[in-house]
């Protein structure tokens, strides 16, 4: 018996044209001003299966609703298109014209793409279709228009569409390539002028003779493409010019220093910062009452001190901080920052009493920077905890908690307050706090640690169905497998909503596998709203794309799938085309040089950094690197995870100066905020991905910090 679809028999290819004609006549005249809801996902999946089983067939339209007929015909047209049966695709799509298909612009794009036209008809069709295009479908339309312009050899039109498409490319390199393609084809002087203007906008380095006011953006562009020599030359020209305004010189000095940091030359970065502060110091000496000079001198001199500290020259850093503190103009945030840095260095030197003195002074300074306030509120009770003065630690942890408004920020303080109570043998108070943490942040980092303290198991993460906002236009795009258009639609839609009013659209992101944007939307919510939602959106926060590639890499390199996911999520939020300021690429954010070194051991070819945008390539290389680090660091979780984020040299120094036998305490002592948070989040991710991949409850792994992960 033939396969069925809602009791409708398949028809052979001989009857396809008859079907189209009959279908058109049977429902011509039916219309609705409102976009109706699409058919069920089950119906669409059955349609796909049917199309796979019987290539080139049509369907009976008996017993189908109008919406089902729309979907079935459109998907049939797409099936013909994918199989390069353009004439059948064209005829199928055209059969929807009199039926008032709900997405008219989309339909006309498909007709433009699959149907034959004379040159004049093509030009008319381009104009007609352009009038129907919504903002979210412009990129798709331009791509079709470009392809058809190439087909009809209308070179100026092709040139124009290369230029228009450049705006939609993610990387500047791609934008430049598109515009250059357009320039090669253009025979229209006005169009060429427009394209050159766009080229200079996206890549100012192509300006042949930049004006003085263009030097900075030219330098930034050279820096962006890692062509540091001309970038630094332009920064230096800005600095040396007597016509450069003060604030522009500050920007140029700062970017000159940062160009060395981006180029991984920390010594040169520090030297450049020192040169900058010498210039600022001279200005301040001549104009001691100039608040702008003072503000910038203190800001960048503090950065110099921090840089020396990073280079493991904490004595030099302390000397600089002592010198800045003597300036009478130093107050407020700068003073608090200096005191906090001095206290942190004293902690590293294990001079706890001196550290506490600095932190107490900082605690009493009135400041405006909330993040600095949090660091200071933490450092004082932590210093008492480190000195094993637990009653004082408890006092200041409680005082800090009373000063913090954000519930998420409080969790860290509550956890270590509980640990302090444990040290005082006050188990009831500790348990009460751990329980409170789990209630408020069940699967956050401190919630996970609290599970361990209370010896509570982790439950498995179940797939949930999320309530979603009714959006028929978006639903149609998804049902019709137009996922790229759906992404563009959501991007446009999001511009019109406040984050809290966009929660109902989160499930749509999962349907189209746009995990990166789903997380971006979720974490754009105010913390108070996220606190109310708690663990409602686990599947949004911890998705599992590229599962096949992850499992293959896991088996090949003998490394936990949960761990690969935990790193991938933190590095790129599952955006295969992610690129960092330091030029790390792809899902696991690999540097090109490292990738080439790994390629032989991983059995993966890497010809260019663009290969790192390929998910399979990136996951295999990243898994190989993670395995190498695990072996090298003898399975010590904190060491290999922090080494993935920071330099191994820095991590080795931290172990020597900050590790006292307790890995949880050591994590809090990691001096790089980024690395400290990174280790915590990777641990959190790992447990949550184990919840997703496990079929039964489990406890926090025994000897987690020193044994291989499962």
Description:
With 710 residues, this protein is mainly α. 66% of the residues lie in helices and 1% in strands. It has 37 helices and three strands. The chain has a three-stranded antiparallel sheet with strand order 1-2-3, sandwiched between helices. Strand 1 (4-5) and strand 2 (8-11) form a beta hairpin. Helix 24 (472-479) runs antiparallel to helix 25 (483-494). The two termini are 48 Å apart. The relative contact order is 0.05. Residues 1-33 have low confidence and may be disordered.
Total E-strand runs? 3
Strand content: under 5%
Q: Biggest sheet: strands, sense, closure?
A: 3 strands, antiparallel
Give the low-pLDDT segments. 1-33
End-to-end distance = 48 Å
Helical region count? 37
> How big is the Rg?
31 Å
Mean pLDDT: 90
Task: Provide the descriptors you would attach to this structure in a database record.
single chain, 710 residues, globular, 3-stranded antiparallel β-sheet, disordered N terminus, mainly alpha, 66% helix
Write the layout of secondary structure elements.
Blueprint: E1 4-5, E2 8-11, H1 16-27, H2 41-53, E3 58-59, H3 66-82, H4 86-94, H5 104-114, H6 119-132, H7 138-151, H8 155-166, H9 172-185, H10 189-202, H11 215-224, H12 228-240, H13 246-262, H14 266-286, H15 291-310, H16 314-325, H17 332-348, H18 352-363, H19 370-386, H20 390-403, H21 407-423, H22 427-440, H23 445-453, H24 472-479, H25 483-494, H26 506-511, H27 515-523, H28 527-533, H29 538-541, H30 547-557, H31 561-572, H32 592-602, H33 615-632, H34 637-645, H35 648-658, H36 663-669, H37 673-693
Antiparallel strand pairs: 1-2, 2-3
């Amino acid at each position: 018996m033939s396969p069925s679809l809602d009791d409708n028999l398949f028809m052979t290819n001989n009857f396809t044209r008859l079907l189209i004609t009959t279908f058109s006549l049977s429902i011509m005249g039916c219309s609705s001003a409102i976009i109706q809801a699409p058919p069920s996902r089950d119906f669409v999946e059955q349609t796909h299966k049917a199309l796979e089983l019987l290539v080139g067939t049509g369907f009976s339209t008996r017993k189908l609703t109008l919406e089902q007929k729309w979907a079935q015909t459109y998907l049939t047209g797409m099936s013909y298109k994918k199989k390069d049966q353009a004439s059948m695709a064209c005829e199928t799509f055209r059969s929807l014209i009199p039926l008032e298909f709900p997405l008219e612009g989309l339909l006309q794009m498909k007709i433009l793409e699959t149907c034959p036209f004379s040159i004049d008809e093509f030009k008319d069709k381009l104009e007609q279709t352009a009038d129907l295009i919504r903002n979210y479908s412009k990129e798709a339309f331009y791509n079709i228009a470009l392809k058809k312009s190439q087909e009809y050899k209308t070179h100026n039109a092709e040139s124009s569409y290369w230029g228009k498409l450049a705006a939609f490319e993610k990387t500047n390199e791609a934008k430049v390539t598109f515009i250059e393609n357009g320039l090669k084809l253009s025979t229209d002087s006005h169009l060429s002028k427009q394209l050159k203007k766009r080229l200079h906008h996206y890549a100012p380095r192509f300006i042949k003779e930049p004006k003085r006011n263009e030097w900075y953006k030219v330098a930034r562009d050279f820096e962006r493409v890692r062509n540091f020599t001309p970038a630094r030359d332009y920064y230096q020209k800005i600095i040396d010019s007597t016509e450069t305004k003060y604030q522009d010189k500050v920007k140029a000095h700062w970017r000159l220093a940062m160009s060395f940091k981006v180029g991984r030359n920390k010594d040169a970065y520090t030297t450049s910062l020192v040169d900058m502060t010498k210039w600022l110091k001279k200005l301040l000496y001549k104009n001691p009452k100039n608040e702008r000079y003072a503000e910038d001198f203190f800001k960048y001199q503090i950065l110099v001190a921090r840089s020396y500290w990073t280079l493991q020259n904490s004595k030099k850093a302390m000397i600089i901080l002592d010198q800045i503190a003597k300036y009478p103009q130093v107050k407020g945030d700068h003073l608090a920052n200096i005191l906090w840095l001095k206290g942190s260095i004293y902690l590293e030197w294990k001079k706890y009493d001196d550290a506490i003195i600095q932190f107490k002074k900082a605690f009493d300074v009135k400041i405006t920077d909330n993040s600095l306030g949090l660091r200071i509120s933490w450092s004082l009770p932590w210093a008492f905890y480190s000195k094993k003065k637990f009653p004082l630690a408890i006092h200041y942890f409680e005082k800090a908690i009373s000063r913090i408004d954000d519930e998420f920020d409080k969790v860290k303080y509550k956890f270590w307050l509980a640990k302090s109570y444990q040290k005082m043998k006050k188990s009831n108070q500790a348990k009460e706090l751990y329980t409170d943490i789990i209630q408020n942040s069940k699967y956050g980092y401190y919630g996970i640690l609290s599970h361990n303290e209370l010896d509570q198991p982790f439950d498995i993460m179940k797939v949930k169905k999320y309530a979603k906002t009714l959006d028929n236009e978006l639903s149609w795009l998804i049902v019709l497998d137009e996922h790229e258009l759906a992404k563009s639609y959501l991007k446009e839609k999001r511009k019109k909503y406040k984050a809290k009013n966009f929660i109902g659209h989160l499930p749509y992101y999962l349907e189209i596998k746009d995990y990166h944007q789903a997380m971006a939307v979720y974490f754009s919510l105010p913390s108070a709203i996220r606190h109310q939602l708690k663990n409602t959106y686990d599947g949004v926060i911890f998705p599992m794309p590229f599962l096949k590639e992850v499992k293959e890499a896991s088996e090949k390199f003998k490394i936990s799938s949960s761990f690969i996911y935990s790193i991938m999520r933190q590095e790129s939020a599952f955006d295969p085309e992610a690129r960092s300021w330091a030029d790390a690429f792809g899902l696991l954010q690999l540097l090109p040089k490292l990738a080439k070194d790994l390629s032989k051991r991983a059995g993966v070819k890497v010809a260019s950094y663009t290969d790192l945008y390929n998910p399979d390539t990136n996951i295999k290389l990243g898994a190989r690197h993670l395995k190498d680090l695990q072996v090298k660091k003898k399975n010590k979780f904190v060491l290999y995870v922090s080494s993935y984020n920071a330099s191994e040299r820095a991590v080795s120094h931290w172990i020597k100066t900050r590790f006292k036998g307790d890995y949880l305490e050591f994590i809090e002592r990691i001096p790089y905020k980024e690395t400290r948070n990174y280790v915590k989040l990777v641990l959190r991710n790992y447990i949550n991905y184990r919840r997703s991949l496990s079929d039964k409850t489990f406890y926090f792994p025994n000897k987690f910090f020193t044994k291989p992960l499962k």
